[in-house]
Amino acid sequence: MGRFDWRTGVVVLAVALSVLIGMVVLANASSEEKKADPPGPTTPTMTELDFAVWGTKDEIAAYRGVVDDYNATSEDTTVTVSSWPTAAAMNADVASGKAKPDLYLLPRSDLAETMAAKRNRPLLDLVTAREIPIGDDFAREAVSAFSVDDDLQCLPYTVSPMVIYYNTELVDFEAMDAEGLPTPKADHTGWNFAEFRAAAEFASRPRPNTRGVHIDPTLRGLAPFIYSGGGQVFNEDHDPTSLALGEDSSTDALRQTLELLRDPRLTLTTKQLAQRSAVDWFKRGRLAMIAGFRGLTPELRGVEGLDFDVMPMPSLGSNQTVGDFNGICLSPGRPTRADASANFLSYLVSDEAVGRLAETGYIQPAKLTVALTEDFMQPDLAPAHAAVFTNAVRAIVLAPLMTTGDELAALVAPDIEALLLTAPDLTDLQDALRAIDEKSRSLLDPDYEPSESPSGSESATSDPSGSPSDSATDDRKRD
Predict the structure, then answer these.
(1) For the segment 145-186, what is each residue's pLDDT rounded down to a tens digit?
(2) pTM score, two decimals?
(3) Judging by beta carbons within 10 Å of its beta carbon (0-12, 13-18, 19+), is residue 164 exposed, middle or buried?
(4) Coil, helix or strand for 324?
């Protein structure tokens, strides 16, 4: 072996240092590579939402079925359903804080109070981001019903116009036509008031204790006739300060309507109504026609031997009616949950989900792509002319949004009942109607100062106790 001099030592040292430095570099590079590796698979965090609804057992079951389908496919959201038998019960729990849903079904009649209490989140931005075609697929009237302050306050979900249900055995249009009586067109697209009255008279004529028609003696029950005759129920479309029943056009429409509805030969007596409801008389085949909404359909289908169909509300000049609207609202104050709620809302308004709810028979979709399908029309079931419901949506007159709607109805209820129950002298009708208008101002007009009642109007509407003044006498006449 050769001599190990200092030159050799330097070379060995240099090589050793190079190897050491290389090992350090490789170790650091390996460490960086490990840090750069993506993390392994993890379970996503699930967002839990609560969806509050109300309705019949069949409706609730349908909502639960829709939610179960959504949960089966969603990777990041789980929805539970909370249910109540009525909207009032649900709203009471939401208002008190007992229930805190992320989404909830809301009647339009409660929208003003809900907005005033800031319990909903405007939806236009969320709906637009998800490209929900509210301008094309939904009934325009339904979208308008929930559009306030240049935003969509809730997404329209169901709609139900008031129509006339009629017993097809008692109201036989072919038999009426054979007798030369006025009858509507066979397509059920509409009828005038003369045809409506002829049907009531025909159904009552040969049958003891059978009546032709019943309209609820309420402001809402009379509203379609007022609107159809060119009148107005309120003095303003927005923020009304009074009813407008005493205006000439409203009075004229009501005069014609009351001439029929106060005819003791054609309408149920107070004694009959004390025994059972108008719907029960209809089910028994003792009442030919009754005004109602889509939710009445499954109930009537369940009556063995009852054959029924539907017509629009009768026209006193134009086709007009009133309706119920329900929307799906999102709760505010939870921005981290808004996207998840809006994603679920997108599924709720899919044709598949809406169709499943329409199959219950109770629900008329606000979404036209379903309302025009067999899911809603159900051609093998009564009524035969279910398209009447869909067509009548265009004739709905939207009521003003008010927080005092229920109070107003209760305030004038005795006076409206008196209009339909007292003796059929309509000479002082306009005075009576103006007295009701004046009475409504005490609730609707913040600057209201009582004025002298029109001559004779107080006695024409109700007695001091608030009960119909001539009801007892009327019962004796009509029984």
Answers:
(1) 999 999 999 999 999 999 999 999 999 999 999 999 999 999
(2) 0.85
(3) buried
(4) strand
Interatomic CA distance for residues 121 and 109, integer angstroms: 17
Beta strand residue intervals within 147-206, DSSP E: 147-148, 151-152, 155-161, 163-167
Coil, helix or strand for 321? Answer: strand
CB atoms within 10 A of CB 98: 8
Q: Is 31 left (phi over 0), alpha (psi -120 to 50) or beta?
A: alpha
With tokens 């004038």, the residue in question is 412
Query: Could you give the angle at which helices 248-261 and 193-204 cross, rounded to 10 degrees?
Result: 20
360 within 8 A of 65, measured Cβ to Cβ: no
Beta strand pairing call for 308-311 and 47-54: unpaired
Nearest one of 276, 290, 271, 307 to 200, comparing CA atoms: 290
CA distance 446 to 241: 8
Instruction: Report whether 132 contacts 327 (CB < 8 A).
Output: no
Contact indicator for 165, 282 with CB cutoff of 8 Å: yes
Q: CA 267, CA 194: separation in Å to the nearest integer?
A: 16
145 is written with which tokens? 């019903």
| Residue 201 identity (one-letter amino acid) | E
Domains of the chain: 47-159+324-395 (3.40.190.10), 163-321+404-478 (3.40.190.10)
Q: What is the pLDDT of residue 464?
A: 36
C-alpha 76/C-alpha 339 separation (Å) is 11
The pLDDT tens digits for 226-276 are 999 999 999 999 999 999 999 999 999 999 999 999 998 999 988 899 999
CA atoms within 13 A on the CB side of 327: 28
Of the CA atoms within 13 Å of residue 387, those in its CB half-sphere come to 9
**Contact present, 114 and 331 (Cβ < 8 Å):** no
Whether 34 has a pLDDT exceeding 50, the answer reads: no
CA distance 190 to 195: 10
CA 121 remoteness from chain centre: 19
According to DSSP, residue 320 is labeled -
Please classify residue 354 by burial: count the beta carbons closer than 10 Å to its beta carbon, then call 0-12 exposed, 13-18 middle and 19+ buried.
Answer: buried
Range scoring the smallest mean pLDDT among 7-21, 90-104, 203-217? 7-21
**Position 18 pLDDT exceeds 70:** no
